[in-house]
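Q: A reviewer asked whether we had any structural model of the full assembly, not just the individual parts. We don't, so I'm hoping you can provide one. Inputs are below.
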Amino acid sequence: MSKSPLKTGPNRDVILGLIVAALLVLIAIRAPVFMSSGSLDTLVTDGALLGMMAVAQMLPILTGGIDLSMPANMAFTGMATALLSKAHPAMPVLATVAIALAIGLVLGAFNGCFIAYLGIPPIVVTLGTMSIYRGAVFMLSRGAWVNAQDFGKPYLAFPMGRLLGLTHIFWIAALLIAAAYVFLNHMQKGRELYALGGNPPAAKYVGINNTHNKMLIYLLTGLASGLCGYLWVARYAIAYTEIALGFELQTVAACVIGGVSIAGGRGSVPGTLLGAAFLVIIFNALPIINVSPFWQMAISGTVVLAAVIINSRGERSQGKVILEPERGTSAKVAS
Amino acid sequence: MDPIAPVPVPALSLQGIKKHFGGIHALTGVDLHLYPGQVMGLLGENGAGKSTAVKIMTGIYHPDGGQLLVAGQPAEFRTTQDAWRHGITAVHQETVMFDELSVAENIFSGHFLRRGRFLLDWPRMRARAAELMANLESDIRPETPLKLLSVAQKHIVEIARALSHDSSVVIMDEPTAALSAHEIEDLYAIVRHLKSLGKAILFISHKFDDIFAICDRYTVFRDGGYVGEGRIADVTQDDLVRMMVGRSVSTMFPKPEVELGEPVLEVTGLCNPTEFEAISFTLRKREVLGFYGLVGAGRTELMEALFGLGQITRGDIRLNGRALEPESPRSVIEAGIVYVPEDRQRTGAILPMSIQHNITLPSLRKLAHGLFLNDRAEVAMSDSISQRLSVKCSDREQKVGELSGGNQQKVVIGKWLATQPEIVILDEPTKGIDIGSKAAVHSFIGELVTLGLSVVMVSSELPELMGMADRIVVMHKGRIVRILDRPAFDAETIVGAASGLAAACTA
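A: Here is a predicted structure for the entire assembly that you could use as a starting point for your response.
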């Protein structure tokens, strides 16, 4: 059986990597300023946030679900920690992180209960909680903004602090993404998520607990959202109701471009990261080469569609084997 | 063709039909003739080309050579609608229908009756649907949502759909696969009714019971080629098997002679609120214990409960003398019992995952080294299993979805063997598979018991149970009505007990 080069897997990742590299080269030729250290630094920090959230989004998508409430969770956590920092400017970073994780976890658990225990489809639950969390941000802040001068010093300083020339946000993302890679590839739970997404009834019969695993997933996306909510607010030094509005679509787009199957069961951390890199480069480079923001949306939309078509072709080529070449006859798969 | 020839003109003929996909020849010139008012049985193993032929007759595939004749006239089907217009419809193996729609909507989907150009004529469709159902002597109402019907009733609806085309040729692809004995009788009655209306019927089945009960003629395909045809009255089952496999299958049931050991599984007084009651049986080491019953007798429900997927309100399960609480499949698997469910297509392999990951899936806890999986142990487990079952693949990283059906089956069986179970519960292990594969499953069961395992085999095929089992447990409406030892096996007694006949139930 010949392997399709379009199929999810190392081949696909290599092709996507080449496309990303070619994109960088093209933009560098067109606008050399893009390759300046300042611009690249922004790129890496933005990419780190998107990368982290895309990898988190990949977990529900792997099991055939989705978490649309992540950016709303980020906004709520970001606003809550920002208000706390305004009230207690000396609050240590560790406390801020702990609070962000805790709030994120609670919001994630709320999703998880509906999805895992009540069996409501993830898209419905998170579409609802997306609005609820976003509305809660407004109630919390009464619509007011938290501006740069309102924050406590440690709150803003830590995420943008530097280690080996790169922001802490980058290093945190690197650590978490590496952990996600190990989790999905070298731990039992991670493998179970693939099985659950690939064929839910089959997973049930090998003793994989659907309920626990789904709960776990939405707790994890909640934790990631909580942490990223804090990092996001600190990065831009402002908190307002519309934080990360529309970010849910970017995370899903990064997954799809990276070869994660929306149907579940297929996808990898490196692929998703490449997808995130692709989007971040487009979003950061297009303004530099004077492309209007409306074109940016159209271009990223086109890329997502193209990726979906490529994914579905890849999946189709590995569907059922209808013919058995070794016998030289046609054989429908036994039903 | 001479229209006034004494030989009746076939309603549909395939003459020298060829079909290839890429370099692979699916059909190498087959003939098939369906006569009005006759039932033609089409036989062949999986891969013989039956499904391809059906797809050509229904316009899904286009032949690369040969001729299709409808009532003696050459015809060409570009689409399924073309086939309908020529009066050819198919009733599929798995019902291809819409669960959320009503019976009437299902019957007319694809060829809705219209009023004017744009509006659908629901009153006429409902009336026609009621008429069709009445013709089939069924009391299903046209407004009923399809999802409320049983599998057998859905078949009737599908047959009604075929008739709604005024078809002269009805193709039935394994219609009895999912039906109970009683429902099969009803289906036969419908087929006889269609026959009396002068329809030409193509009946595809793996069950010889069906073929001999209902068919007038047979055609046999093998490896995409035409082997022969004739009158059912002139052949025996052995003849047909020989034609299908190209050899005679002498050792259909390779049951090895093994010494039965100690009881390994003792079940006493097991109850479930709705599905079974007072279930008691013992399974000995190296024993094959058969479970027979009609569809809906509670066998699958019982096995799922033993596997931790159902409720048990009362009763006691002992594995090697120790009490077993089937809390979840995982705990039962770890205790040494595995359950290979009936619908292996759906509940078996995880197609987007690699062979290795499929095989090790139920054993992951054993392979975990602290928090992390032991990669080397995983590779070793997967390789030893795929070697033992000779899975044909390029490497262990290959996705199971890329394998052929037979090799997918091997991976599914392999993943259970990898857990090193003591007891294997097989639910309908040979349902819908061809004779060659059946023999492979039977010899596999033989292999399991020679390895010292015990097997519980749930099957609706009596010959298979009588051939393979040491004892047969007969269930009827959620209760065990009879347990027979091998010397006492008798088809009439078993079927009688399964149907609830009092005389057969008492030992």
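A: Points you may want to mention in the reply: Residues 1-5 of chain B have pLDDT under 50 and may be disordered. Chain B has 19 helices and 24 strands.
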